[in-house]
Amino acid sequence: MTAHIACADLVRIFSAEGVEVQALQGLTLAVERGELTAIVGASGSGKSTLLAILSGLDVPTAGSARVAGHDLLAMSTRERTMYRRRTVGFVWQQTARNLLPYLTAAENIAMSLSVARSPRRGRAARVAGLLELLGIGAMRDRLPAEMSGGQQQRVAIAVALANEPEVMFADEPTGELDEGNSQLVFDAMRQVNEQLGVTVLIVTHDQEVSSQVRRTVQIRDGRTSTEVLRSTRTDEFGVESLHAQEFAVLDRVGRLQLPQEYLTRLSMKDRVRLELETDHVQVHPTEPEQ
Amino acid sequence: MTRSSRLGTPGLLLRHLRSGALGSLLVAVLIAAAVLAVALAPRAIGQLGTRELRHGLAQESPALLDLTGAGQLGIVTGLPASASLDELVGAGEERLQRIPEDLPAPLSEHVGPTQWVVSTTRHEGFLPHPLPLTFALTLSADLRWLDRIRFVSGSAPVSWDGTLGAEQQPPIPVAISSAAADKVQLVVGDVVGYGLAPVLITGIYEPTDPDDAYWVHESELARPMIVREQGKPDDVRVAAYVDPLTIAALSDEFAAGELSAFLEVDPSGLDYADADELQTQVRQLAATQLSLPSFGSLLFRSGLGDAVERVVQRVTAASALLALSVSGLLGVLLAVFALGVQSVIARRRPALALAAARGAGALQLRSSMVLEGVLLSIPGAVVAIALATVLIPGPVALLDVLPAVVVAAAPPVLFGAMTSPRRLRELRGDLQVRSRHRMRWVAEVAILALAALSLFLLARRGLVASSAAVGIDPLLSTTPLLLATAVCIGVLRLYPVPLLAVQRLLRTRRGAAGLLGAARAIRDPALGFAAALSLVVGISVVVFSTVMATTIRTGLVQGAQDVVGSDIQVSAAHLPAELVDRIAATDGVRGAVAIAQGAGVALTADGKETEVFVVVADTAALHDIRPDIPALTDRVEGAIPLLVSSDWSTRITDAALELAGRDADNAGEIATDAIPGATRHYVLIDRAFAADVGVNAAAPDRMLIGLEPGAAAHDVAAAVESAVTAAQPAQLRGLVVVTTAQQILDEVRASPTVAAMEGALLLAAGVSLLLTMLTVALASIAAATARNRLVGVLRILGMSPRQLRAIQAWELGPVAITAVLVGTGLGLLLPLIVTSVLDLRPFVGGRYPPGPSIDPLWVGGAIGAFVLVVVLAGVIAAAFGRRFAPAGTLKMGEG
């Protein structure tokens, strides 16, 4: 099955006078439809750039990126506008970028609907439905300044979902929130994912969030380095336990990134020796030359 | 608080537009002001012409303006003495009365009916009581004479029933004016000997309306004309009325005599638009001789054409100057306009970026901005245009309203054009020192080329007599603005260079405020191109207005003095030397010089002999009050030094001349109108040599008085007048005329053009200051978010309030200082360009085209006011910006 989101060798270079920054250096990622995936990485690793590209706000320098059947490198302006309108929804970290401060929650959602030219008649029902889904029906007529951080982010999620997108991106949605609100927001996202079947990609620092998603992808130096897959296992006594398995990601040509701690523990750098065993590969550090 | 959410698109748009209403209101007011200014300017300039025309012509005497005709009345001869008036002159009268109707419009709309008087030739008269004067009399007949006069003694004369050439003739009954009767001491009943037949005074009259133009044209009927010559008795000429029926008996005399007719011109209804046509029509009238029945003829002339031409020149010079001031101001206005538009777009950018991220298309974004533009500009523009029509009443021409409409339509268009989804992402402007946009390079080079071209064209054209310019000269109006823009472009490109040097210097020192301030000024300046241009043009307008105001004032003063000859001019019959000395010693008087003239003195030059007037004065004292005239007290190798009037000085090539047989040296030339009273073909020598050339220096008829600086001209003039009048013999007291330059200056400054010019310059400077304040405020507020973020970080790092203030000052400081320097230079350069290209003489008077006069005090004051305004605006805007920045502006990481 073709992935809902498929990036292969994605490159993005920013250049200014005398300064060149390679934000993405050949990133490969595949997300299936309906998945709830978290992307983690240190600051400067390229996660925000990845989201900007996938949501159609930026254009990659090289590589390929396809989301829900749209080729992000080859889109015309018109297609891009439609893509942003109907295919993806976006939630930023700061409220100021998600909501217009002078519109109420319902009006913010209606603005999104108005941009997509959806008919006036259905708007009230849609707004009400979304607010109910996210548990913030009481916030309908309040301005953002009159809501808590968690409520604001949930309204932001509602706005992102207004035009029934196939994919929702969230860039550190809980970055400014305390633990309780973070949990609320994350629960809302999970509910959206489960009930509406929207593919959700969350970029986050937050360990709490990433520990609750099934799949976490780590980005390091502009490439995907490791993935963690979590599942719950029930043993014969009916006790549920959480299992997390960390994988290193292989790109198309077989490169992988070894975790930093492995490298430092074994003092591995420059060249390593590989040995093929029957069911695994060994990686040995080399002795420093005399 | 409950509010209802609007879900429909119009409701959402309304909410969007209502947010940030205060800032939008400011911009709306700005747009309305711009539209008002653009709507007022053409109307004001158009009105100016008409007002100046009416004012200027009203100052002229009727003798100059009226259509005056001289010729001969055709009188039907050979009719019996009992012929009726109608038979005698009926045909002529009818023809004369038809003249106004036959005139073309617009001339015909402003002339009155034909008024005419027919007179015999002048003959000597013999008074019953001999008097020390010669007496000459003319007989005049006017069909409407009885309406114009009232008799103070006696009664109206009846028609003469005598016959010319007969042996015994009854005297011709006449009526004379009371002024004439007093002069020649005649009363009712006196008989005066006269060539044709004796003349009997039957009545003495006075004009019923002495101010009527009739008495200016027929002056001899109102008062006697007295010709005075030195050494001869007065020659008195009088005209007397006869009953018109007397024409029958004296038909030959009247037919051979003179017909004087005039049509009164009323300038109060004239329109400036008709000026050219009027001049042409007056010229055509003067070129056509009118033929009257019975071999009569009449030729008109009028000074109306020349008077109109003078006004046209004045108005054209004034409009050119006005257009200049307006164009500079318009430049500032447009820059502030651009700033306002930019500020609105910047304020809307986050919302537009959000909408774009949610999938709004370019069309949707542009339409919302266009809608905002329409709402901002159209209501204000309508009010402004209506206000302009009310403030300056008059017909509304489409061409006048068009610029205002264009300005009103600009904001919606600009808003739509400058909104592009690609530009919504705030790009970091501080990554590069110099911008790399190709379009900007192209535009800058184009403007530089245009500015150079216009300067070249202007220089090539040279000084132009303003009548050649058609209305508002586009080249002269746009050159200063182009020059200012070009200079601004150059400055903005070059100004990082010294700042980089300053930054390098500051890097080696301790203290962060200066370094940070300099770095921000180079990389992320708060005032962009529009703001900098507005500042540069703003201060250059202020300095330019100040310099032009002083130039015009100096020119006017000089012009008035050129007309009068000095500060005060006295013309009287009797100016003895001790009177002159007494006046020279009066309070407030710097010097008094008497001027005498002699006529018919022989001057030999280049072997040819001509007769010249010789003007005699104490040239040492004259040089004191008229520094342009050198002192001629010392003989040059035994020859008398003299100055030759410039109307014929070019024809003399010899330096050695002979005046009345004495050796004379040609010491140079003097302007023909430099000495009042001397009009042409004269030489000036010192009083000491007067006796040598046979001119009586003891009978001067004019005196020039120079005042101490700061003396009250009117008071001194009054004192002088009373002193001079007291020194006159009784019958010559009425001839004392005292003119002050101050008086002429006041009259000229009351004329619409001068008042408009001075007002416009003042207005330009004032509005410029205001707009500068607005510029700094807008730019500062626009930079407030970035500044507040920086201030937040710096405060956490531990900067003191004093250092923070220094950083804020660095934002405004470099650009403001550069603007002041460059703008002042420009403001001082422009008057030089203007005065060398535009001849201001029709406007200010004077003999030579005025050059710019720079008063350091005024210019310093203007610059000081500007700097004060900028600082004040910066401080206020900084305080304002801080109030609106929420405490949570500071965000770590992405901001």
Please explain how this structure is put together.
- The complex is a heterodimer of chains A (290) and B (895).
- Chain A is an alpha/beta fold and 290 residues long.
- Helices cover 31% and strands 31% of the residues of chain A.
- Chain A has 9 helices and 13 strands.
- In chain A, the strands form 3 sheets. Chain A has a 7-stranded mixed sheet, sandwiched between helices.
- In chain A, helix 4 packs across helix 5 (120-133), helix 4 (105-115) packs parallel to helix 6 and helix 6 (149-161) packs parallel to helix 7 (179-196).
- The termini of chain A are far apart.
- Chain B is α+β, with helices and mostly antiparallel strands.
- In chain B, 53% of the residues lie in helices and 16% in strands.
- In chain B, helix 2 (21-59) packs antiparallel against helix 12 (304-357), helix 12 runs parallel beside helix 16 (474-494) and helix 19 packs antiparallel against helix 28 (856-884).
- Chain B starts with 8 loop residues before the first helix and ends in an 11-residue tail after the last helix.
- The model of chain B is unreliable at 465-470 and 884-895 (pLDDT under 50).
